[in-house]
Specification:
This protein has 733 residues and is α+β, with helices and mostly antiparallel strands. The protein has 24 helices and 22 strands. Strands 2, 3, 4, 5 and 10 form a 5-stranded mixed beta sheet that branches. Strands 12-11-19-18-17 form a 5-stranded antiparallel beta sheet, sandwiched between helices. Strand 18 and strand 19 form a beta hairpin. Helix 15 packs across helix 20. The longest helix is centred in the first third of the chain and has 30 residues. The chain is elongated, with a radius of gyration of 48 Å. 37% of the residues are buried.
């Protein structure tokens, strides 16, 4: 028999659940009929369940739950949508500026960009220095995924041991490493095709000097960072290198940078520079200086050519040569611009300045007699010697014989204050203003001068000057005594300034006449500087060099010569310096022939011979006078006398022949190897054809046309040294 209590509770629960469900589905159904066999629950229990059911809200039976769920979802999405818009408005309007600034700092940056350097031209438009685009290879070690594969692939391309490359990049903590700067196009393309993760190419500029060593010390060079380190590249770096500007740089997802060129924004470019240098003259001078330095086994040699009317420097040569394209292969002693940076005792080339000052101050006249003491003068425990034994000489011959004793006595008449005044006015002891790195030299103030200092300075000792200062002094002397600054750059729109007069025209004329005698007279020290067909003036110099170890003058010398032409009205002057020649030390022997070679080529190149001969021919044609007397035989026969500077005459150091921009104008074409046919040509055209070969023919008769010539056209030029007459007969027919 079962326990009725438990069974009743179980059945009551079933009935309760069943009745509740039944009540909701069918309220009229009899509850007791659900389980008739089960014992009925107490009445109280049935009444409680019924009360609970009766107390439920009546409206729940009418709810459309499907629609309610849809409305609930829509409401939730609407609230989320409104919230998102509210958040967006807050970020855009309230936090926008701050977040934008943070994003800009994270993804963009500004860099200081220098851009392409300006080009350097000579006076005729020849390109002396230019910047070309180059590629540099860099690495970002944090972006390299496989260092071993990178090293094995990149090492052979760069010519670097793979193990060294691996050690350098795998162990570094730097985020950026330059691997190789300014590589050639083949290497850059190989790196690009390798497509190595973490290895990239950057655009830079490489400086190229098409004429290689020509004017190398003057031009100087730039470093890997495109900053000028020597020469004009350094002194004019702010002009050539352009003003640095800031540009926007953006980083991509890999951290690499690229430029964002904004509207109106372009890469900065430096200002171009045009020099007064003429590369054809530069070629003449460099060739002559190099030959002399090698012949006399000198330490170095240099020369300057200056146009007197304008003050422009036409050539600036120095040997040993320096090629700025390979500046790392040369020592500072080679690329040092000695003509501007080295201060030396000038020697006898300093004497014309002292003579002009004495004439200006009326201390002497050309006819004043000076006792030269027979070549040796002992005074104030100081001995002065001459290279020749001269007695009493007029002042006009003191320069011709280059007497130190005579100049010392002339200098004493000036006194220290007056002496100093003239030297300072000429520019000694101060920089010339030419845009190169130059020394001031040494010019002591008058109170530090002793009587011995006055005497020694009179013949170019006890004072240190640069070659550039000497050129400035001679420019003033030859410019009728009016100071004129040297010019190395051609600045358009330059305003001529009024400069002081240092010497009177009378003093200048007297000194120029004395300097003409130095060259043109047979007993002058500069007779080896003569140029056939034109009068030349000049002054030789042989300066003792101090021995710093012994504290006295040693055996080494500085041989120099300064010459100008034409002697009566100078158009050009050439200054030559040869330091420490060993086979001969005198300026008249070592340096004067350099001037002769340079001047001979210059008068042909500039057409000075042509103008002289044509003027004489036209004068004779107009007046009906006799034939023109011959003034010059055939000069130097050099295969490339007036040829453009191309590869044939100088295969080692000339620019590539294919570069037509490096050629000189067509009228400077290479001279023919045979005598030209000038029959029927005008006198001007005929003389020009002969002048290209270094020949100025004799003109006979009167007229404007050539009717006969000798030698016959088409024959080979005779060998140098043979006395051959070149005659053109003229007629009006």
């Amino acid at each position: 028999m079962t326990r009725p209590g438990k069974k009743a509770r179980r059945h009551h629960g079933d009935a309760k659940f069943g009745n509740a469900m039944f009540k909701l589905s069918s309220p009229k159904r009899n509850v007791s009929s659900v389980a008739p066999s089960r014992p009925a629950k107490p009445q109280a229990s049935r009444n409680v369940s019924a009360d609970k059911i009766a107390s439920s809200p009546s409206w729940m039976g009418n709810v459309d739950w499907a629609r309610a769920r849809i409305k609930l979802v829509v409401s939730i999405f609407c609230m989320l949508w409104v919230g998102l818009w509210a958040r967006a408005w807050y970020l855009q309007m309230m936090e926008g500026p701050r977040l934008a600034e943070r994003a800009r700092r994270q993804h963009t940056a500004t860099e200081l960009v220098t851009g392409r350097r300006g080009m350097i031209f000579d006076r005729n438009g020849q390109v002396l220095a230019r910047s070309v685009e180059a590629k540099s290879i860099y690495a970002r070690p944090q972006d390299i995924t496989d260092f071993q594969a990178m090293a094995n692939t990149l090492g052979p391309i760069l010519g670097v041991e793979p193990q060294k490359l691996y050690d350098e990049l795998a162990q570094t903590k730097r985020r950026f490493v330059w691997l190789k700067r300014k590589v050639d196009d083949y290497t850059a393309e190989s790196v690009r095709k390798a497509n190595i993760s973490g290895i990239g190419l950057s655009k830079e500029y490489d400086r190229v000097y098409p004429f290689k060593h020509m004017a190398g010390q003057l031009l100087g060079f730039v470093g890997l960072d495109d900053k000028g380190l020597e020469g004009l590249e350094r002194s004019l770096d702010s002009r050539l290198g352009c003003i640095p500007t800031r540009q926007i740089v953006q980083r991509d997802a890999m951290g690499r940078r690229f430029y964002l060129h904004e509207e109106g924004q372009s890469e900065p470019v430096g200002q171009d520079l045009t020099l007064t240098i003429d590369m054809q003259m530069q070629f003449f001078v460099e060739e002559a200086v190099a030959r002399t330095v090698r012949e006399y086994d000198a330490r170095w040699g240099g020369a300057l050519v200056v146009d007197v009317p304008s003050g422009e420097i036409m050539a600036w040569a120095q040997y040993p040569f320096f090629n700025p394209n390979n500046y790392k292969d040369f020592s500072p002693l080679v690329y040092r611009n000695r003509l501007a940076a080295d201060a030396l005792e000038p020697g006898s080339t300093f004497k014309p300045f002292v003579m002009a000052a004495a004439i200006q101050e009326r201390k002497v006249t050309p006819n004043t007699l000076i006792d030269c003491e027979g070549g040796k003068w002992v005074t104030k425990n100081f001995t002065i010697r001459d290279t020749s034994r001269q007695g009493t000489l007029p002042a006009s011959k003191v320069l011709r014989y280059s007497s130190n004793i005579g100049m010392a006595k002339i200098g004493l008449t000036l006194g220290a204050p007056t002496f100093y005044k003239y030297l300072h006015a000429l520019g000694f002891g101060q920089r010339t203003g030419v845009p190169v790195s130059e020394s001031r030299g040494i010019l002591r103030i008058p109170r530090d001068w002793s009587e011995v200092d006055i005497m020694s300075t009179s013949f170019g000792q006890s004072i240190s000057v640069t070659g550039l200062q000497m050129a400035q002094g001679y420019l003033t002397l030859l410019n009728n005594g009016v100071y004129k600054p040297l010019r190395l750059t051609r600045d358009d729109g330059a305003v001529d300034e009024v400069h002081p007069r240092v010497y009177s025209e009378t003093a200048v004329r007297e000194v120029m006449h004395m300097m003409r005698d130095v060259v043109e007279e047979n007993d002058g020290t500069g007779k080896r500087a003569r140029v056939d067909g034109i009068d030349v003036g000049g002054k030789t110099g042989t300066a003792q060099k101090a021995d710093h170890r012994s504290g006295t003058y040693g055996s080494k010398r500085l041989a120099s010569f300064v010459g100008f032409f034409p002697a009566d009205k100078p158009k050009y002057f050439v200054m030559v310096m040869v330091d420490e020649p060993t086979r001969n030390q005198y300026g008249g022997v070592v340096a004067a022939p350099v001037f002769k070679e340079v001047a001979s080529r210059m008068v042909t190149y500039t057409g000075m011979f042509n103008e002289t001969k044509i003027a004489e021919a036209e004068k004779n044609a107009a007046t009906g006078e006799g034939p023109v007397t011959k003034t010059r035989q055939r000069g130097l026969k050099v295969a490339a006398l007036d040829a453009p500077y191309v590869a044939e005459p100088r295969k080692l150091d000339a620019p590539q022949q294919a570069d037509n921009s490096m050629r000189l104008p067509g009228h400077l074409a290479k001279a023919s190897s045979k005598v030209p046919d000038v029959m029927g040509k005008s006198v001007r055209n005929a003389v020009e054809l002969f002048a290209r070969a270094g020949v100025v023919p004799e003109l006979k008769g009167s007229g404007s046309r050539v009717v006969k010539q000798t030698p016959a056209p088409g024959v080979a030029w005779p060998e140098e040294g043979k006395n051959i007459e070149y005659i053109l007969w003229l007629s009006e027919r």
